[in-house]
Write a structure and sequence with these properties.
Blueprint (H helix, E strand, L loop, with lengths): L1 H50 L6 H24 L4 H18 L1 H16 L7 E4 L2 E8 L3 E5 L5 E5 H5 L3 E3 L5 E10 L5 H14 L10 E7 L4 E10 L3 H18 L27
Antiparallel strand pairs: 1-2, 1-5, 2-3, 3-4, 6-8, 7-8
Helix pairs in contact: 1-2, 6-7
Subunit structure: Homoheptamer.
Subcellular location: Cell inner membrane; Cell membrane
Main location: membrane
């Protein structure tokens, strides 16, 4: 038995040593890949916790992708150590990836759009937006769809590629919004008195921001009224309630000031024509 083992060792010692050496290197590379992948994932989480530059939804995706990338590089090194033609393997994987990409181009388009939305962040979770004739609050941004809830409680899942390719109106991002309140007074009323009423309301309403300062102006000369306009800014949280309250207050204050809010009017002139019919008798 010992003689057989000794003969086998003498015949294949170099091969066994080479395999053992390569196997040891492969183990070292796997351990190193695991350590590096874990360190990169931890670094991504820690860096974003300090800087807050990326959306929280994007962090798990980036950290997972970085970990897989490290393992893929380590796998290439291991295959190269054992003599596998990695160039041909990479070409094969690339061709397979191209075929899969063509077959799933719409899905990959949504993934790419989702990543861009998460990186550039034209909107965030909780923002109130309007896009492609849809208005609602953003509930979730994932790789494939963006989830919205409309003001009447509807659930809308919109593909990311549609959002990425459309103009996005974000009502929340700037923190404040301007409201335009228009009221009409009669042509016989004093414009200065009407503007004074609007200016007083703007100064007394505590929810209206003074920077930018509110403005009052003559908006237009309509058919039946002179339209006066109050432009004022309010914080997003106060916007709608302030807008509703101001409409009520403007109407009441205009009436208290003795001004008239006219109804649409038309002047109708009736012209009567008396036609005399001439009868002709036939002979």
């Amino acid at each position: 038995m010992l003689d057989n083992l000794s003969a086998f060792w003498n015949s294949y010692s170099e091969t066994l040593i080479s395999i053992g050496y390569k196997g040891l290197l492969a183990i070292v590379i796997l351990v190193a890949s695991a350590i590096i992948a874990k360190a990169i994932r931890r670094s991504i989480h820690n860096a974003n916790a300090r800087l807050q530059k990326l959306d929280a939804t994007l962090i798990p995706i980036l950290s997972t992708a970085a970990g897989y990338a490290v393992y893929a590089i380590g796998g290439v090194f291991i295959l190269d150590i054992f003599g596998v033609n990695t160039a041909s393997l990479i070409a094969l994987v690339g061709a397979a990836g191209l075929a899969i990409g063509l077959a799933l181009k719409d899905t990959l388009s949504n993934i790419a759009a989702g990543i861009m939305l998460l990186i550039l962040r034209p909107f965030r979770t909780g923002d109130f937006i309007e896009v492609s004739n849809t208005t609602g609050t953003v509930l979730e941004i994932n790789l494939f769809t963006t989830i919205l809830e409309t003001v009447d409680g509807l659930y809308i899942a919109s593909p990311n590629s549609i959002l990425w390719g459309a103009s996005i109106k974000n009502f929340t991002r700037n923190g404040k919004r301007r409201m335009d309140i228009i009221v009409g007074i009669a042509y016989s009323d004093s414009i200065d008195e009407g503007l004074a009423v609007l200016k007083k309301i703007a100064l007394e309403e505590t929810r209206i921001l003074q920077n930018p300062a509110p403005q009052v102006m003559v908006a237009s000369m309509a058919e039946s009224a002179v339209n006066l306009q109050l432009r004022a800014w309010a914080n997003n949280d106060d916007y709608w309630q302030t807008y509703w309250d101001l409409n009520k207050r403007v109407k009441e204050s205009i009436e208290v000031a003795g001004l008239t809010i006219p109804f649409p009017q038309r002047s109708l002139h009736v012209i009567t024509c008396n036609n005399q019919a001439t009868e002709k008798e036939g002979q």
